[in-house]
User: Fold this.
Amino acid sequence: MDFEGAKKYVLAKLKNRLDDNLHYHSVDHTLDVLEAVNRLAVLENINGHERELLRVGALFHDIGFIETYDGHENVSNRMAREILPQYGYLPEDINIIEGLISSTEIPQKPSTPLEQIMADADLDYLGRDDLFLIGQRLQYEWMLQGKVSTLREWHEKQLEFIKGHEYFTSSAKKLRNKRKQENIKELETLLCIKK
Assistant:
C-alpha cells in the first residue's frame, strides 16, 4: 500500500479543486483530522494495517466536497473505490475505508472501533481551545452556503450541536470532554443563557 502516494494525490486534488468558499472543509481540516486520527489511534492502541486504514480514511473523508456539498460522503466513497486500487489498496481495505468515511456523516453512527476513532477525529475540535477560531470558518462557510443568516443563529446552532454531541472512544472523552463542557458554557454566556 502506497499511503504517501495516496496522500499526495488527495492533497493535490483538494488544493486544486475545492471551492474557494469552503473555509472550514479545506485542506487544513483534512490535515487536522489526519493528526487527530493519529493521536487517537496511539491512545486506543491501534497500530499497523488498521492505523494505516484510519489515516487513509482521514485523507478521503471530505474529498467528495470537490463535487458536492450535501451528500459529499457518498462521493468520497465513490472516489475512494476508484482511486485507492491504484495505490495498492485491496477491496477489503476499501470496504473498511468506506465505513470510516461514512462514520463522519452527521448524525454520526460509527459501528466499529475504527469508525468511532474516525468520527471522534472529525469532530475533535469541539473539545479544544480553538473551537471558536475553527467555528468561525464553518460559520462563514455556512453563511455563503445559505445555511445560516446571522451570527446569533450560527451560535445557537453550534450550541445545540455541541450539547447533543458525544465522543465515542474513551480516549477522546478523556482528552476532550472537559474542554467541550467549557466551550458549551462560553457559548451559553455569549448567547446570554443563564444556568
